[in-house]
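Components:
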Amino acid sequence: MKNNTSQADIYAPEYVKDVFDKCSSRYIKFSYWCSFGFTERWRKQCIENMPVPATVTPSGYDLMAGTGEVWPHLFNRFPDIKTVTSIDISSGMHKLALDRLHKMRAHKIDFIEDDVFQSGLKDHSADFIICSFGLKTFNPEQHQKFSNLIARVLKPGGVFSFVEASDPKGWIFRPMYNFHLKRILPLVEKFLLQGAQDFSNIGQYTENFQNTEAFSEMLKEQGLEVTYKRYFFGCATGVIGRKPA
Ligand SMILES: C[S@@+](CC[C@H](N)C(=O)[O-])C[C@H]1O[C@@H](n2cnc3c(N)ncnc32)[C@H](O)[C@@H]1O
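Structure:
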């Protein structure tokens, strides 16, 4: 696995937190415009593809929630959700999420600002778990730990859907896509978004991550029912499924 950013461990929670604290104020616009709106479409598809929870008033988690980008899609599809507990390590992202909370169903959303692995989520506590674009900043060891957490925290019959930007292997326009990710985005970031390092590692994270295939296998090994998903020629991939009842 490549890790070219000087000597920094780009998977260390404190490093990732710092990246998102620095870029939080620009994250939503950057993510939308630099993906030509695709990130928003993939979030919507992530929610649309989640199996229906076993109860009509489900409670669940949005892990690596960022500024709550996925909530509008979630509440559109499941208006009777009881609570969403959102977890994110970045205080910058957290603050924006809280600002957004005031505009929507604040009474239905709790926010835990913490490393997902330290956040004390209880066994069998979730009717659903979602995660949009939170997988690539984990390495394989962290993915293993994360698959364990998902299996532990879901209630029997609980459902999940995750999506992540991926390397579209075999797609005719893959070289252009990778050029955009690894060359153009860091330049846009550097010259138009006021510097810092922020997203300049996004190509590196995506190249290392590849797609959700390996993570899907880890979830299967945890005894979950799993379906692998490809979105737009594999530029994003996902995994959906259920914990057997
Ligand atoms: C690319 S953003 C995704 C945000 C949002 N879910 C979306 O759809 O755009 C990844 C988020 O994961 C959070 N994150 C990364 N590692 C984390 C960890 N170990 N625990 C909790 N949050 C984490 C970051 O702070 C960041 O807000």
